[in-house]
Design brief:
The complex is a heterodimer of chains A (about 100) and B (about 210). With about 100 residues, chain A is of the alpha+beta class. Chain A contains four helices and three strands. Chain A has a single domain, classed as Orthogonal Bundle (Arc Repressor Mutant, subunit A). A three-stranded antiparallel beta sheet of chain A has the order 1-3-2. In chain A, strand 2 and strand 3 form a beta hairpin. The model of chain A has no long low-confidence stretch (mean pLDDT about 90). The N terminus of chain B is likely disordered. Chain B folds into two domains: about 35 residues, no CATH class; about 150 residues, no CATH class. Chain B is an all-alpha fold and about 210 residues long. Chain B contains nine helices and one strand. The chains are: A alpha+beta (about 100), B mainly alpha (about 210). The interface between A and B is medium-sized, with 34 and 34 residues. Strand 1 of chain A pairs antiparallel with strand 1 of chain B.
Chain lengths: ~100, ~210
């Protein structure tokens, strides 16, 4: 039986990965606005998720400004899917 | 404040304030109720999807580009000359250029890339749009061989509208369930396919 992923079990990181699952890649500022958090908080969580191989980031340009683009990796997508499945099972058990 | 064992502690009023913020801010919370965790995460995803906007007039522009491509291809196939193949190639180039512009605009407006949208615009991967496009393309080609140019135009317009309609349907499905519809062919694969298509046409031109 799959277990909860300790890295995604932090609600903030679950939000980051879930939001990224809606797109192929998002600009850092777009993600920050959708999650309604500060740059530093988001940056810290992205860094942790990137170290685990769950997200990838690259530098790009938008409207003449240098920006960072972030996307889910296939490992991150799989980890999110499994974590959410375990959470749903927990909810079913409680119900 | 320092306790009897010499360890400094925050006063109670400060601790209460910090705990209050931690309780109300999900970004500082420990994992808790799975249901609320999922709900908050889903809300954030939906907020992002709801905020996305398509470039102005995207469906009309896409329909027109597809109509031009179908007309050019039908003419080129029916003409069976080097000039005809050049016209067909120009039609593909127009569609690719419009698709690239629309995708660039979408990314510029929203700050996101959605490969599912790229697949819809460039490849028309939706079942409905593919069927209508192929039907229109076939009818236009037949009409071109028969020199019924008004029918070529009508079939090309129908193919364009069908193609754009497929994209519109996909967009509604995406807004309803973003995670299931976000995936698609990556820009690298699309660029490779476009390059292969162009090389194929060039090879046909040379052979012709």
């Amino acid at each position: 039986m799959a277990k909860l992923d300790p890295l995604i079990h932090v609600p903030a990181r679950l939000q980051v990965l879930t939001t990224l699952s809606a797109v192929s890649e998002a600009e850092f500022a777009t993600l920050r606005d959708a999650l309604e958090v500060s740059d530093s908080v988001l940056s810290k969580h992205i860094s942790t998720l990137a170290d685990a191989g769950y997200v990838r980031s690259r530098k790009g340009v938008r409207a003449g400004r240098r920006t960072t683009w972030i996307g889910l990796t296939s490992t991150g997508r799989k980890a999110l899917r499994e974590h959410v499945a375990v959470l749903r099972r927990l909810i079913d058990m409680v119900d | 404040m320092v306790t009897a064992d010499g360890v400094p502690h925050l006063p109670n009023w400060k601790v209460a304030g910090i705990l209050s913020v931690m309780e109300s801010d999900p970004w500082l919370q420990d994992p808790g109720d799975p249901r609320s965790e999922l709900a908050v995460a889903d809300e954030a995803r939906q907020r992002l999807a709801d905020g996305l906007r398509l470039p102005t007039g995207m469906h009309s522009v896409l329909a027109a580009a597809v109509a031009i491509q179908v007309t050019a291809a039908a003419y080129g196939i029916a003409a069976q000359t080097t000039a005809g193949l050049a016209v067909a190639l120009a039609g593909v180039a127009v569609l690719m250029a419009v698709a690239a512009l629309l995708l660039y605009r979408f990314r510029w407006i929203n700050g996101v890339r959605v490969d599912g949208l790229s697949s819809q615009i460039v490849l028309g991967t939706g079942g409905t749009s593919t069927l209508i496009y192929l039907g229109g393309f076939g009818a236009a080609t037949w009409a071109a061989f028969e020199s019924r140019w008004w029918l070529v135009a009508a079939a090309a317009v129908a193919a364009g509208i069908g193609y754009a309609f497929g994209t519109l349907r996909w967009w509604h499905a995406y807004r309803h369930d973003p995670a299931s519809h976000a995936g698609g062919v990556s820009p690298r694969v699309l660029a490779t396919l476009a390059l292969l298509a162009c090389l194929g046409f060039v090879a046909l031109l040379i052979a012709g």
